[in-house]
Specification:
mainly alpha, two-stranded antiparallel ribbon, 6 strands, globular
């Protein structure tokens, strides 16, 4: 959806949200750099942060846009984009995939590790810190989904057939129930706002508290925030899939394409969380 036009150029809400997310990430890393939180703890990461913090943001932006887009294309709508190849570049329409984002994280971090010769401590430090700007971005990108009327939810009457009228009115007032007029004129569950809150805001709040408390006490378990994000996001997305009714919610053996990935991510996240808590590598 177009936010406004500047002369002949259309500025899309997605573009604004991308910019805000990347700007927030850059300012966050500048804050980390300024107070030297990781100078002794993760020298490789801190050296990169001192010399070229823009590289972190640049690699993040490039791999994010590429892999998030490719994830959606190959997993969900490959046949459509095979027939309309130029639509691959229409990123202002949205349609990004978190599963592709996971591939982005792996690819970008491995590239940084190889180029800057990071240790595992440097690697997990960077991965943990990326969780905050990522969750901030997810919070706004889901609002972008709402403005574009994508990823709409199921009919309220199908999921909650016996809700009282005043409860329906209240949920409609705060837009948790919403009529997606580009789709039809039925009241649907606003899975966009639910996702924005549970996938984005909750992770952002929890991660911020854990990170800054640990920095204040000079004590932090590396890899914990990364694994928590993977576990929590996979858990939330798995159940939100049952409330969604869109082109991505095609069930095979009671699971959507996305849910099969999230089961795998959840298991991997539990393993990584257990490993991070067991090793308990703390700052000194």
């Amino acid at each position: 959806m177009v936010a406004f036009s500047l002369f002949w150029i259309s500025i899309y809400w997605y573009g604004i949200f991308y910019f805000l997310a990347f700007l927030a990430g850059y300012l966050f890393f500048m804050y980390i750099k300024r107070y030297s939180f990781f100078e002794k703890y993760a020298p490789g990461f801190y050296s990169l942060l001192q010399k070229s913090p823009e590289d972190i943001v640049l690699y993040t932006v490039l791999w994010l846009l590429v892999w998030w887009r490719l994830g959606h294309i190959f997993i969900y709508d490959f046949s459509y984009y095979l027939e309309h190849p130029l639509r691959v570049f229409a990123i202002w329409e949205g349609w990004m995939s978190f599963i592709g984002g996971i591939l982005w994280v792996i690819t970008a971090l491995l590239f940084i590790i190889r180029k800057y010769k990071f240790s595992f401590r440097d690697f997990w430090t960077l991965a943990d810190l990326l969780i905050l700007p990522t969750s901030f971005g997810i919070m706004f990108w889901r609002i972008g989904n709402f403005l574009n009327q994508e990823l709409y939810g199921r009919l309220v009457t199908d999921v909650f057939p016996s809700l009282w009228s005043h409860i329906v009115s209240f949920f409609s007032y705060i837009h948790l129930f919403y009529i997606y007029d580009r789709v039809d004129w039925f009241l649907r569950i606003n899975t966009n706002f639910l996702a924005s809150f549970f996938e984005g805001f909750v992770v952002l709040l929890f991660s911020s508290i854990v990170l800054f408390v640990s920095l204040k006490k000079n004590r932090r378990t590396i890899g914990f925030l990364s694994s928590f994000f993977l576990v929590w996001y996979s858990f939330v997305r798995f159940f939100l899939e049952y409330l969604r009714m869109d082109s991505q919610s095609e069930y095979v053996a009671f699971l959507t394409k996305s849910q099969r990935f999230f089961v795998l991510f959840f298991i991997i996240g539990i393993f990584l969380m257990y490993r991070s808590l067991k090793k308990s590598s703390y700052m000194k």
